[in-house]
Amino acid sequence: MKNQDFPTFYLNSIAGRPAICMGIIMKKIIRWFRRLFPRFQTKLLIAFLLCTVIPLGIISFVSYSVSRSIAWDKTMDASILAGDQLHVQLSARIRQAENVADALQFKMYTLESANEQKLSTYMDTITQLRNDISLYLSTFDIYQICVFLKDENFGSNEGLYFYPLSRLDLLGVSRQDLESLGASSLWLYRLQIETPFILSSNKKTDSIICSRALFNQGSGQLDYAYFILMDTAEFSNMLTTAFANTDTCGYLAMPDGTVIASSDPALYSRKLSPDLMQRLSDCKTPYFFYEGSYIHAAVLDNGWYQITDIPKSYVTGSTVVLLRTILIALLSALSVTVLVILLISRNLSVRIHTLSEAMEAFRLNPNLPSYEPLTVPKPDDPSLYDEIDMLGLTFEQMQAAIQNNLKSILELSLTEERLKYQLLQSQINPHFLYNILGSVKTCQSLGKLDVADRMISDLTRFYRLTLHKSNDLILLRDELEIATLYLNMEKLCHNNNLDWEIRLESGIENFLICKFTLQPFLENCILHGISAQTPNIRIQISAVYGDDTVIIKISDNGAGIPAEKLKELRQSLKSRTVNYEKHFGVCNVNTRISSEHYGSGHIEIESIPYKYTCIRIEFAQMEGDQIIGLPERIEN
């Protein structure tokens, strides 16, 4: 199996197991390629393919997208243009009916006035109205005009153009529908309207009706009403003609969603969904997509919707041939490219593979000074070097440079870390000394010379102890002794309104801690904690074990830290920066203990004004014997 070439193996696999999983076949293809080509050549082949396929793909995609967009726009524009042209025709037809209604309005006023005159005058007027109606029907190709008069009026039972108001049910209309019309028209859609036999042998026709009426406010009765009927088939024919030889469908719909005319007979009298009607009323764009179709809608002069339904399949159908052509061209170009890349990458990958083996053999180790640098084969004549040969030469030189510089870099890194720590340590001492000397000066100014003397004595002991401990890390026991001396000095300055308590878990005082860690926090407790509302302050210091860490908590019942200042302080702690104008002492300690050489510690602060403030310091447990391995202090 191992010596069998891939085509034979593949054919045998298919012949032997026709139902083999496609995933297994792909894995075998990948393994065969990895055996046939070195790893770099495979990657190089993939890179070349990507560099070829991506541009070809982009060009093909752009070409297809542009062509598709043009075809799509052309199809959509043609359908929308046909719909807009149809909208002009339909609106013109509706305005034509409105114009006829306006003309009849004047005639009806004349007829109503003649009703109060002589019968001969009324007969002449109604005869003239009948002639005008006949003229309108023939001139404007209107299906029928029906005039409804009061039952007692002469000619109301004529039966061709004139009917009594009591027979409004012939058109499916009630008096209530007409009472609030005023001078405007009411557009109706009625099925199977029966008309005189002389007008239609079919007698019943679906009609679109333009209605007008005069309601007498004084008597509270209808004086007359007239209706202009148009056959819905006329509008359906207009829709069918506009969208002939296309898959586009056009239809007219009332505001309630009833389809009154359509180029598709299956849609007659159907109700459109409320969701579609809502989309039509809310639409602010030329068209929108709905259930597989693009909908273009326009509102006619009577408030009805003229809708153009453009199926998505009709819009995208013109791009299928274009897509097939682009795919064939792309696959052909890709096949030729693969063959060329295989020939080029084979020679190039051999030298890269040799160089990669030389680099892989080079490792950082403790015996770098005695490490024998590797060489990469190159042509004898330097003028024949190409980029890969120059890379091999540079690698050889780099090995020697790394061997010479690595030790210097490591030593400089340690020196830099030591100097950074000592700089921070040197900054905290003058800060503390300045504050204490200020307190001594205050006591002298107030005549408290005995207090000042005791503070100077304590300060002497304080510095004797701190200078005696020359290491950067000291025992927690010694740090607490330094903190106690400081609290004693502060207590002398504050009339004994300062109290403290120290609680330790057994043996924890033997772990190491950065020198001068606690004093800045104790100073802040006193300086910012004592106020008019909190004149007496009590400080509690505790040290407990964590998970391989030491946890120190310093809490007080002082004035606390305002919310904005607390947020600012937490941000400074998180960023581990030292601001020489704000929060210097706290941030100085945070920066020192965060070093991996000094416990990788961190500080958390919680405070509620005038209730409590709690500082939590946590750092890794460091044994006393670790002092030996720490950088020594540089003496003046």
From TrEMBL:
Taxonomy, superkingdom: Bacteria
Any Pfam family hit: His_kinase
Keywords tagged on the record: Membrane, Transmembrane, Transmembrane helix
TM stretches of this protein: 45-66, 321-344
Cross-referenced InterPro entries: Bact_2-comp_sensor_kinase, HATPase_C_sf, HATPase_dom, Sig_transdc_His_kin_internal
Boundaries of every Histidine kinase/HSP90-like ATPase domain copy: 518-619
GO cellular component, one term: membrane
Keyword field contains RNA-binding: no
Residue ranges occupied by any Signal transduction histidine kinase internal region domain in the UniProt entry: 420-497
MF terms in GO: phosphorelay sensor kinase activity
KW Flavoprotein (keyword) present: no
UniProt protein name: HAMP domain-containing protein
Organism: Parablautia intestinalis
